[in-house]
Amino acid sequence: MEENVRNSGIDVIGDVPWGTHFCQFYQTKEDLMDIIVPYFKAGLENNELCVWITSQPSEVEEVKEALRRAVPDFDVYLERGQMEIIPYTHGYLKEGVFNPEKVVNNWIEKINQALTRGYDGLRATGDNRWLEKEGWDGFVNYEKKVDAIIDKHHVIALCPYYLDMCSTAEIIDVVSNHQFALIKREGKWERIENSGRKRAEEAAVQAAKDWEQTFDAVPDLISVIDNEYRIVRANRAMAAKMGTIPEECMGLTCYHAVHGTTEPPSFCPQRRLLEDGLEHKVEVHENLLGDSFLISVSPLYDNEGKVIRSVHVARDITESKKAEEALKKAHDNLEERVKERTAELEEAYKALMENERRLSEAQKMAHIGNWEWNIVTNKPYWSEEMYRIFGLDLQEFGLPYDEVLSYIHPDDRDYADNAVRRALNGEPYDIDYRIIRADGEERVVHLQGEVIFDEKKTPISIRGTLQDITERKKAEKALELSRERYRSFIQNFKGIAFQADRDFNLEYMKGNVEEITGYSEEEFISEKLWRKLIEPEDLPLFLKKERETKSSPSACDGQLDYRIKCRDGEIKWVHEIYQKIPGKNGKPMIYQGAIYDITERKETEEVLAKAEDARKKEIHHRIKNNLQVISSLLDLQVEKFSEKEAIQAKEILEAFRESQNRVISMSLIHEELYKGKETDTLDFSAYLQKLVKNLFQTYSLGRENVCLCMDLEENAFFNMDTAVPLGIIVNELVSNSLKHAFTEGEGEIQIKLCREHKGDEVDRPCFTMTVSDNGKGISENIELESLETLGLQLVSILVDQLDGNIELKREQGTEFKISFDIV
């Protein structure tokens, strides 16, 4: 059988070529299944994608069962997608609307899918029992478009029509759009060729010649009018629009009967025809008839060529007008969408260019270039960084392979070339070698690539990256030298040298082990004794350092001081220096270090620390006095400016008041440090109470009804680096609330300081400080980052200085929530 001829599966039809489009008229569901089932059975068995659009969603399972009875392994076809059974709500309608153009496009897409998936073509059926009468014309036009599509593609289409739903005219429409039809007569299916279409067309032409017979069948409003504007004859459509019958229209004056006027309206085409004897057309909206019409008037002449009557044809163009408006709107929308899409494409192009620029910058910073060599065309490609690495000027194409080899160091050239040849045979391609740049400088590079093979395992291209690792190599060499020196130092060191495995199990301890601890080297290694000697207060820090070192992905080192308890019960301070050494050449990672007795140094440091504490207290006392002097000066300056009428005293007073409050906030910190027992930290909760009290006194005028509520964490001791920024933050936020929040002069300010608990292992206290008021709040349209006041800008800067986070809430007034860690 020729490839173009397909088995229809229907005995009365036999084999048919691609592009066959036929219909079936049926009266019962059994009639439908009698044709459809063998039709699809043949399609499934001959490698065709089969699509059945049913008339009701409920019929899907019924259709599947009918096919299961006739087609062996039907479920296999169904599972792999060769058979698709779709209800008409999905096959023909989109959101309940039948769109012929979209359905035709869907069929074209389905044809392409069938061929792409390896099927010989598409075999389709679409039932139309769902179709309403008013949608018939649109469906007939759809059938014409489908017929034109099917004729040009690998498609066989069967269109079943329920006979009881079709009138004689509709049957003619159906047959005219199909190559042949199947109809059952006396229990047998017969194939009816499309010769009836030609007879129908001839009858239509003959009927068109007989104007009298077709006059009443035309849906347009047609009337014959004499030269006195009297209606001589009207068809049924015209009479029906006027609410009467054709016979009663005769003799009526047209402008009175149609327009309700006593004379012809200005746009009347009949009047213009009587003036010039020519045909005329006009579009009007007739209120009495309720629609828009295209009216054409043509003259009728007597034997002498005089106009005796005219034929008026009024076509209802209401829907077309609506369509025109919709089309215009769609056109306007389309233009807008084209503009938007053009703008989007421009933005996408800019983004692409920006991404390329960023990639180039990233490669430049990392000294990594990418390259590709098309082996088939021998055409290379280099990124910009490749040229920079080799010290070459930018070119349109990369260097040929032979020229690249000339830049490789002579001692490494064979090594690099052999690596490429091995890669072409499928081996990994990841090497380091030296190059000689164009300016003569020697550099070390790391090359990594992959070879692309075709289906015959023949290499067609090779691509990869090249990184300048000269500085890294120098650093590695310097590090190795440093380690050698360190090991030499340990050998001559009068402390304890040790080495541990990746789990910190001691492998050896050498040096003054017994002199310092009272225990032997063997006891430490066999009994895992060292951690047991560490004082309980110092053990958490020791274990934390172990975890940090172990989790480091690369080499690292560090040091720490802690106390141990010796065999004789003496407590000694020791200083440990350690380093993590990654394994090389298959060797495991290790830890090495040294421990020495620093007890005497610690005792000396303690004496010095006491002297330093006294010195710091004296410094804090002096700073506090100096800041108080600054505050007093600012106060005097405020008084001086307030006495001058020519200066805008309110702004100047406010500026100096704010500066004064900031100085006071710092002064209070020094005062607390001076009075307290500690020299480096202060009780921040006590400090806050004094600070806020001072602010309330400063802004007391007109705010006597503003109350304060404070919930402060006890024993919250912060150092200067934390206390000073936090004090200024509280100063700014409370001052803002007092100045701006309470338009009625009453309200509440809340300050809360509490300790938070994190779930991680890092031993770092975390605090949250909240400053809020129930005043008028900050507008939702204003973001925290856009606030331009000096105070809030200062708050933002200080929060960043603390490595903290700030949140602004505006649900009831204003709330600032600041989270920060204490180092």
Strand ordering within the main sheet: 5-4-8-9-3-10-11
Radius of gyration: 48 Å
Structural class: alpha+beta
Helix content: 40-55%
Mean pLDDT across all amino acids: 82
Q: In what range is the share of β-strand residues?
A: 25-35%
The separation of the N and C termini measures 87 Å
Low-pLDDT sequence parts: none
Number-wise, the strands total 33
Task: Give the count of helical stretches.
Answer: 27
Q: How would you characterize the largest beta sheet?
A: 7 strands, mixed
Tell me the overall shape.
extended
What would your notes on this structure say?
This protein has 823 residues and is of the alpha+beta class. Helix content is 45%, strand content 27%. It is built from 27 helices and 33 strands. The strands form eight sheets. Strands 5-4-8-9-3-10-11 form a seven-stranded mixed β-sheet. A hairpin with a 4-residue loop joins strand 14 (280-286) and strand 15. Helix 26 packs antiparallel against helix 27 (790-801). The radius of gyration is 48 Å and the shape is extended. The mean pLDDT is 82.
